[in-house]
Fold these 2 entries.
Entry 1:
Amino acid sequence: MNVPFEATLEFAQAQDQIDILFPFRERFLFPQHEGKDVRYFCGNSLGLQPKSVGYLMQRELDDWAAHGVEGHTRARSPWLYYHHNFSEGLARIVGAEKDEVVAMNTLTVNLHLLMLSFYRPKNGRYKIIMEAGAFPSDQYALETQVKMYGYDPADAIIEIAPREGAYTIDEADIYKAIEAAGDSLALVLFGGVNYYTGQYFDLEKITTAAHAVGAYAGFDLAHAVGNIPLQLHDWKVDFACWCSYKYLNSGPGGVGGAFVHEVHGNNPEFFRLAGWWGNDESTRFQMKKGFYPQTGAASWQMSNAPVFNMIAHRASLDIFDKAGMKSLREKSIDLTNYLEWLLSSITHLPFVIITPKTQEQRGAQLSLLFLERGREVFDQLTAAGIVADWREPDVIRIAPVPLYNTYEDVYAFYEVLKNMQ
Ligand SMILES: Cc1ncc(COP(=O)(O)O)c(C=O)c1O
């Protein structure tokens, strides 16, 4: 849109009227506050439920009731091949070939499984570079992986922190650390978008830098997938994993996803832990000895697809296909810029936006760090029917999600802060 912003309700409503994505909010169910839809800014934590989930769930229950075990082949979406339903949609969202992605397990499980393939320290190459302040589950995963091989996390894990006085990481420090670690470096494992600050990293440059010293590059894309368009294949990322319950609206604990670049996924000799679902589909039911991996990321699957945990994912990916990541990103940039612009006029509350200012370094999230009164602001927002996210000790995270947030939502958020004494 890129028209000059105005701090009025009329302006916000006019933007909604010309927003081509506006009708998509009709496809979601909103929690209620005093008889009205809440203004939901928590899509970076748990996305809203697509309305079609109930219908699709019932359809699967009916097929189970009607066919029992034969549903594996006779259900309207045969369960034997259920995971195939996600390859094309996920590939479009993360910029991959369809064989490079798979919907399976959950995020931390996938991180561990992929590290078992991509973190196999030997010959003095055992270090991992990660961001300081990564999501705790990632920290625990990496600590235990290095311990499993007998290393001390304090030595094996190099954390990159913001410089003194800064809130976000200077990317130059990542590249310097990679170069300094050199041939002791096994892996660079970063979040695509940091969950706390909302900083989005240059995944391509990190990957190139890791490869230059002979290390792999992998990413936790929990806060990037469905938020920012990605090109994992072209960027030559080695592996990535994500959850689907944030921007991908696939429900609490919904099925996770994984990407493995085809140079590894199509190499049957590349190590992966095996289960029958990763075996070549044409021989899977011959019940023979000897694992023969199918091609691609799907060969990392172990168990048969958890169909009921994938239904919301299907509903959501269908919406993403119709909206398209390009349009979503365009609106997302404008909506977040509008929020930032409005907030910049508020001077009577003591907060700073710790998310990077440039749109290339962030997605649909602003993190507001309150020097004081944070909890009070959060409570006022809640009382006004605005759902935001409180992170101890002092941060409010807000995600204007382009699929269902409006300019009016953003204006309403600003108005609560503006009207506080
Ligand atoms: C960045 C990040 N990593 C890991 C996780 C853990 O995800 P899961 O419980 O699906 O393993 C989360 C959850 O919100 C997250 O935000």
Entry 2:
Amino acid sequence: MFKTAIGQDSHRFEPDTSSKPLVLGGVIIPGCPGLCGNSDADVVLHAVTNAVSGISGINILGEISDNLCHKQGITDSRIYLEKALDTLTEYTVTHLSISMEGRRPKLAPHIDTLKKSLANMLGLTVSCVGITATTGEDLTEFGRGNGIQVFALITAQKK
Ligand SMILES: [Zn+2]
């Protein structure tokens, strides 16, 4: 028995003068300011975390992540994803597909690194992580370079 679930997230960039690093999929990407948010604002991991919640039915982003952030000072989104994966008691993630929209940064040079990072966090082989990226062609806030939007689709198999 399989389940599939989608997760989405989007964040706006900090001003260009910000020293906050841009973190995507647990990887620091140079050349762009970070994204706005109380946490590291890792928009990729937030979308993946929401997709995991779509499998388990237990939402992590929101009350639980806010508590981790505000009460325990945990801003590393990898911890939020770990919390979500901990709730997957009956299912094993078998595949992850990511679709990203944003004019900046240029994502193509980072895709292999991102795949490795995500595969490592989810216990998958790199061949079970797919990532595509589009610029958005000036049509949306993401396409105008003001932020990044990510969709994540997870497939999981019953243990
Ligand atoms: Zn987010």
